[in-house]
Design a protein that fits this description.
Elements (H helix, E strand, L loop, with lengths): L6 E3 L4 H8 L6 E4 L5 H6 L7 E4 L9 E3 L5 E4 L4 H6 L1 H6 L1 H8 L4 H6 L2 H7 L5 H8 L3 E6 L2 E6 H4 E3 L2 E2 L6 E7 L7 E7 L9 E10 L2 E10 L6 E2 L1 H7 L6 H14 L10 H21 L3
Parallel strand pairs: 1-3, 2-3
Antiparallel strand pairs: 4-5, 5-10, 6-7, 6-10, 8-9, 11-12, 12-13, 13-14
């Protein structure tokens, strides 16, 4: 398989990259890690006239914690760099755990965090992690920029709030409150496959009771699926089998997963219940 013909430009400044993308005469695509785009080009599912390689734009290679306590992940930052970063592992361990579930090391060494989020395969790990962690995205275009919350960013399968002439310049994730327990689990046929179902959980404790909960699935809908009904079933309850069973029933009642060649809708619904109990247990053990 070979891609159709295209031009390739690697700008060194963000204004230059945005100028190229804003040209109405050419269909352009941003190239960062290319782990999703290149296969689509080879299968001719995408046929842009121009690839704009943003990896040489210095400001898009930023990875660090700002004075606001949030971690800033530039559009050209590789997934493996995020997973290995000591500050990320200490302050945002759920993010590091989600990245480590992505494909294989070769993919993580080339793929970017922002690229996976913009591509938005709903079975992917990072959209669910981003929603669980209240991420926001800085989106730039020629006439300015805007900030988009994760809850407004993912629209449908392979669709986000980013317009063709825009670039997500960074993903910003606020600090987690002290004592937050976390867990990320997924079920896949083979290690490295996309998850048939996956789950990100954040919990905080008030003594033996659940003080706050965030429950976000991947692989069970056309976007990451947050389940406030399951979260509400836990709040104020003493953590244990009864509370987890209530949360699992609440999740099962509202989830409407798709069926495909990899798993039926009923299997995904049952898997979501099992995942929830396992992931809640793991997250609770990490609460301080």
């Amino acid at each position: 398989m070979k891609p159709g013909p295209f031009d390739y430009i690697a700008p060194t400044t963000l204004p230059e990259a945005l100028r190229l993308l804003s040209d109405p005469e050419r269909d352009s695509k941003v190239l960062a890690g290319g782990q999703s785009l290149i296969p689509m080009l080879n299968m001719r599912l995408a046929r842009p006239e121009l690839l704009v390689d943003i990896t040489r734009v210095a400001e898009l290679n930023r990875l660090g914690v700002d004075t606001d306590g949030a971690v800033h992940i530039g559009a050209a930052v590789r997934q493996s760099a995020v997973a290995a970063d000591p500050a990320v592992r200490a302050g945002w361990p759920l993010l590091a755990a989600a990245v480590e579930q992505i494909g294989h090391p070769q993919i993580r060494n080339r793929g970017t965090v922002c690229g996976s989020l913009v591509h938005h395969d709903p079975a992917a790990e990072l959209p669910a992690a981003a929603l669980a962690l209240d991420a926001r995205f800085t989106v730039a275009r020629m006439d300015g920029w805007r900030s988009v919350e994760a809850g407004d960013f993912f629209l449908s399968t392979f669709a986000t709030a980013v317009e063709p002439e825009e670039i997500v310049t960074e993903t910003v994730i606020p600090p987690l409150p002290a004592g937050t327990g976390w867990a990320f689990r997924e079920l896949a046929q083979r290690r490295g496959d996309f998850a048939a179902a996956g789950l990100a959980v954040l919990l905080r404790a008030d003594g033996a009771a659940v003080d706050s909960a965030r429950i976000v699935y991947c692989g069970v809908g056309s976007t990451p699926v947050r389940v406030p009904e399951a979260e509400q079933a836990l709040l104020g309850q003493e953590f244990g089998d009864a509370a987890m069973a209530d949360a699992a029933r609440a999740a099962s009642a509202v989830l409407d997963p798709p069926g495909d060649l990899h798993a039926s809708a009923q299997w995904r619904r049952e898997a979501a219940e099992v995942l929830l109990v396992r992931t809640l247990t793991e997250a609770w053990e990490r609460t301080a």
